[in-house]
Design brief:
16-stranded antiparallel β-sheet; membrane; 3-stranded mixed β-sheet; globular; repeat; BamA/TamA_POTRA; signal; 43% strand
């Protein structure tokens, strides 16, 4: 066509418009305008007026309810777009399996097929996961609409729940049982199957660290003899991702800045129902720190004064953690000096030839952004404020990414969550940021039942302990523990409670109550006491604690014997309490106190020889003066930089404190103690851990009186292994009377046992100890010896087992420096503790 172009057909509803546009400019404008008018007319024609709404097919849902979802009023135009919106709204209710919308004249016709109503949700075949836990995992609910699509999703959620407990081959099917009147029972049939195991975890590409060392870094474990108790051999993809991050941090903190994980694959052998996990890594080169510098572009910031905040030093092995700690220290220092928006950026410069990384901390003025709100998600038990208080920033504060990441680390360290993810989103204004915290909670309660056998001294024989611990009590972040211990001759009961954020501040306030009973050794002991304490962090690693302590102690020896009148055979009333103290009737403190003028009768009525309390008049006199009460205040400073408090490999632990007794009670003394321990990896590849410890103490009487003998230090295997409890120090006639001063040192190396799976939790140890206990107010008294600082020393080997019942340890120690009156014990077996 000459001078003309055709506009292709345009669809509006069901009407088709066609227009011809001439080549002339004015004619073209006019013709397009006509096309627009025709299009509008066609759209108007497709939107028919509705005078009524007819609802068909409904039996349970009221027609008025369905009409309300249409949001259409009679007398209004309804277009095809409106009909589509009606369909979407009705389907979104979940009440209908099918909905059809059409128009006939002035009527809008809505045809529905109603979903059935769920009467009950039932589970069959489940024993490993309770009904309540499965109900929490699914979405289908009684009295809700039955949806096959939703039920199918629930089946997958149940399967995932079983995968998380190590039963990947669980089979889940569903049955909809119709019971009439449009109602159904939804029944999930479950075949739980066997536990899926982890047959092996292997590493490829690791040269510097062996498989054994890397397996200790990750949380997943190969199935072993103790997996039944520990349940750490359950494969979970999320756990594998967490372990990947743990490996990265491990390598980055040990100089391998180029480390990367090539792949992490878990293959399921369905015939064995076991996973084979292979992690392929590229370690790269190992770097040390090169030059360290600080540059600032902010006027007024003195870079030279900030070097004391750095944790990185030239020549040391490169550590990403040290760089992060330096960032936090610098950021806090600058914020404290008024530079709230200062931004610290570490810039690394690799020297590939010398394998060093120089770090330049650049301080710039960051963008002015504020925290609009802190949004917390995923916490079903933990209160919001427990999470919020770990952040050094809150709503309205200057946004600082470094402080946000430090809060993330603190949340992970709490031990309340399986995972913690912190992200940001734009706020309502360009300078506003929303901080989003997603957490996945984990069980924080623990029922512990332990047992063992201790040898030597006053606690020999089998022992057992049962305890209940909750580290996040009522979701408030509080710690509570109740425990009881039982031995052949001992009983102990303990209750501890700690509020870690008293009055919203980082002040840990708590109390302890205890009762201990012992009928072992030279005399019986009964102690009841408790304390109220408050601890405050000074820095990330340094903590101060103040406490008030009170205890009552009663000493004696009844040996199952009752004192009776020789004529009436009635129990004699004792003036000094309900424990046998008849030996105190002799007023001569220098003599051994024996029963005079009376008989002692055993439980069968037989007259027996009157026993002595002990062979020490000093101890006997102290027994006669009991019960005692001690009211004291104490303080301590603790520095803890250990990488893991339960199983340290690197870092320092130093604790020093004093106790002043004399705030009422019977005791007046000042007691000072100090202990320091250092840990280091002697060999990374074979996980050989070296440690050295030193400790010392001194107690002196106050108020001009003599020091009570039971306020002395009593030492033995806790200072130098190879000796009994109370095995060293001053004695009278072979009975320990304690000392006023002690000092000791220990050196030890522990290592995995070759040829034994690490999952069994066994480690070997070699050690050497030296120390002394001395100082007595009874020097020169008949029978007293050992009042000097003669050194005792021993060396030996040990076997440590991280058992499901607690850490157990067997030691063989041979004393090669000792005194004739010392009491040795070369073999010992019992619970292990580090501090």
């Amino acid at each position: 066509m000459n001078g003309e172009k055709v506009v292709k057909p345009m669809k509006a509803g069901k009407n088709i418009l066609r227009a011809t546009v001439t080549a002339a400019k004015s004619t073209t404008v006019l013709t397009v305008a006509l096309v627009g008018m025709q299009l509008a007319a066609a759209q108007s024609a497709s939107a028919a007026v509705v005078n009524r709404i007819d609802v068909r097919g409904n039996s349970r849902v009221e027609a008025s309810t369905i009409r309300s979802f249409t949001q259409i009023q009679p007398g209004t135009n309804v277009s095809e777009a409106d009909q589509d919106a009606i369909l979407q709204r009705l389907f979104a209710t979940g009440l209908f399996s099918d909905v059809r919308v059409s128009q006939s004249g002035g009527a809008l016709i809505i045809q529905v097929d109603e979903n059935q109503i769920v009467n009950q949700v039932l589970f069959q075949g489940n024993s490993k996961i309770k009904d309540e836990q499965l109900n929490a995992a699914i979405q289908t609910r009684p009295r809700g609409a039955y949806s096959r699509a939703q039920v199918d999703q629930d089946v997958e959620m149940i399967r995932e729940a079983y995968q998380r407990i190590g039963r990947s081959d669980a089979v889940v099917s569903v049955q909809a049982q119709e019971i009439g009147e449009g109602r159904v029972n939804v029944i999930y049939n479950i075949q739980e199957g066997d536990r899926t195991k982890i047959a092996s975890i292997s590493f490829v590409g690791n040269n510097f660290f062996g498989d054994t060392r890397l397996k200790q870094v990750i949380s997943l474990r190969e199935t072993g003899l103790l997996s039944f108790f520990q349940r750490n051999d359950v494969y979970d993809e999320d756990k594998l991702r967490v372990d990947e991050e743990a490996l990265r941090r491990f390598y980055y903190n040990r100089g391998f800045a180029d480390f990367r994980i090539v792949s992490a694959v878990a293959e399921l052998d369905e015939t064995e129902n076991s996973y084979y996990i292979t992690i392929t890594v590229d370690e790269g080169e190992r770097y040390a720190f090169g030059d360290i510098s600080i540059d600032s572009t902010i006027a007024g910031v003195d870079s030279g004064a900030l070097y004391s905040e750095l944790e990185t030093s030239p020549g040391e092995v490169y550590s990403a953690e040290d760089v992060e700690d330096s960032l936090v220290n610098l950021t806090n220092r600058l914020a404290g000096e008024g530079y709230a928006f200062a931004q610290v950026t570490p810039r690394g410069d690799r020297d590939f030839t010398n394998r060093t990384i120089s770090v330049n901390y650049v301080i710039d003025q960051g963008p002015r952004a504020y925290v609009e709100r802190l949004e917390i998600r995923g916490n079903t038990k933990t209160r919001d404020y427990v999470i919020r208080r770990e952040f050094d920033v809150s709503e309205g504060d200057a946004f600082n990414q470094v402080l946000v990441q430090r809060a993330k680390q603190r949340l992970e360290d709490l031990g309340y969550f399986e995972s913690v993810k912190v992200s940001t989103a734009p706020g309502s204004e360009p300078d506003r940021v929303i901080v989003i915290v997603d957490v996945a909670e984990k069980a924080t309660g623990e029922l512990s039942i332990g047992g063992g056998y201790t040898t030597g001294g006053e606690s020999s024989g089998p022992v057992a302990e049962v305890g209940v611990t909750e580290r996040n009590f009522l979701g408030r972040g509080q710690f509570i523990k109740v425990s009881a211990g039982f031995g052949t001759d001992t009983r102990n009961y303990n209750l501890s409670f700690t509020e870690p954020y008293f009055l919203g501040q980082r002040l840990a306030v708590g109390f302890d109550l205890y009762r201990t009973e012992s009928t072992a050794g030279d005399y019986d002991t009964l102690r009841n006491g408790g304390d109220v304490r408050i601890a405050a962090p000074i820095t990330e690693n340094l903590t101060a604690q103040l406490a008030y302590n009170y205890k009552e102690e009663e000493f004696g020896d009844n040996n199952g014997i009752t004192l009776r009148d020789p004529i009436t055979n009635e129990p004699l009333e004792l003036a000094n309490g309900d424990r046998l103290r008849s030996l105190c009737s002799d007023p001569n403190p220098a003599a051994y106190r024996t029963l005079t003028g009376q008989d002692v009768v055993d439980k069968n009525g037989n007259v027996v020889t009157a026993p002595n309390y002990t062979d020490s008049a000093i101890i006997n006199n102290a027994i006669c003066e009991s019960p005692y009460s001690t009211s004291s205040i104490s303080y301590s400073l603790t520095y803890n930089s250990l990488d893991n408090s339960n199983d340290p490999r690197e870092g320092f632990f130093v604790q020093a404190g004093q106790e002043y007794a004399g705030l009422g009670g019977d005791a007046e003394f000042l007691k000072s103690t100090v202990k320091a321990s250092a840990y280091t990896l002697l060999n990374e590849e074979f996980d050989v851990i070296g440690s050295v410890s030193a400790s010392a103490g001194h107690v002196t009487s106050l108020g001009g009186g003599d020091l009570r003998v039971f306020d002395n230090f009593f030492k033995g295997k806790d200072l130098v292994r190879g000796f009994e409890y109370k095995g060293i120090g001053p004695r009278q006639n072979g009975v320990s009377i304690g000392g006023t001063q002690y000092a000791g040192a220990q050196a030890e190396a522990t290592f995995p046992l070759p040829g034994i799976s690490r999952d069994l939790g066994f480690r070997g140890a070699v050690f050497a100890d030296a120390g002394s206990l001395w100082g007595s107010e009874y020097a020169g008294v008949q029978g007293v010896e050992g009042d000097d600082s003669a050194i005792r020393a021993a060396a030996g080997v040990g076997l440590i087992w991280a058992s499901p019942f607690g850490p157990l340890r067997v030691n063989y120690a041979h004393p090669f420096m000792k005194e004739d009156f010392d009491k040795t014990q070369e073999f010992s077996f019992g619970f292990s503790s580090r501090f």
